[in-house]
Amino acid sequence: MKAAVIGAGWAGLAASVALREAGAKVTVFEAGHTPGGRARRVFHTEFDAPLDNGQHLLSGAYKHTLALMRRVGRNPDALLMRRPLRLASLDGRFHLSAPRLPAPLHMAIAILRARGLSWVDRCATLRLMRGLKAMSWTPPRDWTVLHLLHYHGQSEALIRQLWEPLCLAALNTPMATASAALFARVLRDSLAGSREDSDMLLPCTDLSALWPDAAARQVTMRYGSTVRQIRPSPEGIDINQERFDAAVLAVPPTFAARLLDAPLREAGATGLLEALKAFDYLPIATLNLRLAEPWRLPEPMMMLREESARGHIGQWLFDRAQLAGDTKAGELAVVASAATGIADRNRQQVIEALIDQVAEQAARHPARLPSMPEVSAAELFIEKRATFAAVPGLTRPLNSTPWPTLALAGDWTDTGYPGVLEGAVRSGLQAARVLAPLAG
Ligand SMILES: Cc1cc2nc3c(=O)[nH]c(=O)nc-3n(C[C@H](O)[C@H](O)[C@H](O)COP(=O)(O)OP(=O)(O)OC[C@H]3O[C@@H](n4cnc5c(N)ncnc54)[C@H](O)[C@@H]3O)c2cc1C
């Protein structure tokens, strides 16, 4: 089978691996020049090593992603730093750490021993987990995360300290509009699964080097090749007027809607077209900082306290030097999720406020961290359409289309996950399965 994949993000590349394994001759069309899509390597002259377009965190529950890495010959144990779940704020006021005990004891003990939560809040946290389990981890489809938290009697302090940063990290959507069902799914997989599922996996290389580079080497890549026309039919599919037996369209839904507008109308599949057009997006900003001297944080990933009125909009801080094993100089990444409106603000002021946030909160740490060294380089990446807004009641398209020769893939398809890497990978693998009958 001569197969095409459009889009070399994690979904498209996962599809390309599975199609190649099924015996297809695979060509990947990618508008950009680097494999990885929204999770890819970026070069910057003032930084010694490559950066990412945005700092990412994986979890032990990302089973398909970890298996796929091995399938293309990459070793997740060497490329990802695996840490038991530990949420520690840079100012030292909050600390939650899962001991190496079997599930669900590890989570119960982590919550009961959490520093910075009152006893009432610790019990409320356990109550929420029990309540979700009693709902079989499926709260009503129209509930928001805030609705769910209030329903289970979570206090404002607990929401602000624990649930808000977790919701933003997992769904990139504010609690007041985020889907409770998707949040519950993430909690179920990562906190209520096995102890290993709750582990945090932190990339030690750039994101393309994790596995997209290796996957890209196994197929024919056409970089800088934007697909502008698709003509699917039951017999085959024309892509930019070139004939293939089958294809996976693994681009964001807005682009998919544009490419499939006429074919879907002709096929009378306007429901799918409307679903593709219905997604909204939210931005994520990542500030990369190179420091003049080494500066090792107590944890490779730490929580930041938000105070948006002062521009302190970061939620998480990553010690990238620690992750890369670089002892010469400090390197940090500050992440601000759901950073609506950030692209319209003065860039330099955004950078300075985030640096101030880190320096100020580190200075409050009770272990007296050395003060933050001078910043020698700063690069702010703003991904305006980082993920789809994970709101209640979204209709997420399936991988199949009206044509047996075309499958859809992307984190936005009906994966049950919010817009995350594991969802993208699963979707790509599923799209390849949809086309499997043609391969035989
Ligand atoms: C800043 C940031 C931080 C994130 N943090 C996390 C995290 O910590 N953990 C996590 O699990 N997830 C995170 N995510 C989400 C994760 O990156 C995405 O879920 C995932 O990368 C989506 O992959 P995809 O293949 O579905 O889509 P994409 O990566 O968007 O891939 C689509 C590809 O199609 C290409 N393309 C588009 N149109 C065309 C065309 N016409 N012709 C050819 N090519 C085309 C694009 O260039 C792109 O490479 C984050 C995302 C961002 C942006």
From TrEMBL:
InterPro entries: Amino_oxidase, FAD/NAD-bd_sf, SQase_HpnE, Zeta_carotene_desat/Oxidored. The keyword Oxidoreductase applies. Keywords: Oxidoreductase. One of its GO terms (molecular function) is oxidoreductase activity. Its EC number is 1.5.-.-. It is an enzyme of class 1 (oxidoreductase). Pfam families: Amino_oxidase. Gene3D superfamilies: FAD/NAD(P)-binding domain. Residues 11-435 form the Amine oxidase domain. Transmembrane segments: none annotated. Signal peptide: none annotated. This is tRNA 5-methylaminomethyl-2-thiouridine biosynthesis bifunctional protein MnmC. It comes from Achromobacter agilis. The gene is mnmC_1.
